[in-house]
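In the current project phase, work has continued on tokenised descriptions of protein folds. One protein thus recorded appears below exactly as we store it.

——
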Amino acid sequence: MGAYRYKVDTADLVAGAGSLDQASYKPTVNLSQGKHTLYVQERDSSGNWSSSSSKAIVVALREIIGTAGFSDGIIFSPSMATDASGNPYVVYQDAANNDVATVMKFNGSAWVKTGSTAASTGGAYYTSLAVNSSGIPIVAYADVGHGQKVTVKRLNGTTWETLGNAGFSASGAYTMSLSLDPSNVPFVAYRDAGVGMKTTVMKLNGTTWEVVGASGISSGDTDPTLVVGKNGKPYVAFSDSLSGNKASVLVFDGLSWQHVGPAGFSAAAVDKVSLIVTSTGTLYVGFVDKSQSNKATVMRFNGSQWENVGAPGFSTANSAYFISLATNSSGLPCIAYSDADHSDKMTVMRFNGASWEIIGVPGITSGSSGDFSLVVTEAGVPIVGFSDGSEGGKVSAVKTSYEP
């Protein structure tokens, strides 16, 4: 059995180090929230000490926001956003109330419904949410009452008002993704039933919705994720069937849709693609990576090519089912995923500039997490709204109380 010496958060082990006769360590007092590094050396049989090894962890307490399972019943397609003050909003397909789109806001002590009625008048599928610079929530959904075409609404005081016409898309819509440009103009991307489930992007031009470029911009039936950058340009990421289901990203340059880097830039086929753009214009894309045993990989466009952010397949899970990507105020990505190694509970990680680290502990939710949506506040706090398996599929929201 070896002999070890150690310190927490101090690299100098020559004097004042703790000693161990086993290769495990448990702090004798609770560590404060934040990042901590354990430094360790091992002594051999001749009394020589090895070079130091270290391991960093982030201590972050899991905190349910408000009450767990705060919806009336089972939910689908949760989508989260925050206003400029960090107040979280969530929209979801409300199965307990005839599948209407319900939007709720956390007011500091409880989740409350926004508006005097639901955001939709009937069934709403594939709900997606954004909050504009004035703190006003905007919702997009496939409108069952209009042939599952796209409808977008905005909260005006206590009333949800339709932007443009209800059911404005030419055909039925699936897998909605909503984003706002710097002037709060809404864009929406969706799988378009009228063009073989390829992706179509539309934007509001005054009071009329118009197709951006052409309909059906993707190579095939795929789930798009849309962001509009600070430059006002829309970007769409998807699994590209013409490139072996590898990841592709398109940008509209004002005239047509163009690939950002090569088509199919990932190493292999991907699933559950998630796209973000930072305030400085850096694009990140995260996905379930088929070349890494379905673990999570994140890539970044460096201006000329796509490159891995940290190691590919960095997630701790054997498989990462469902992922959601967000960026903090420093422009670094965070990711949430359903962790197969922890009974499909949710794990949240962040990139620290050199490697990926778990925030808190893996599997932070009480039960399995199905659909979910990740946002990061300006203070750097990750918040996830999710379908909570421990609450019968109702919606819950969880955050870490550690603010880096």
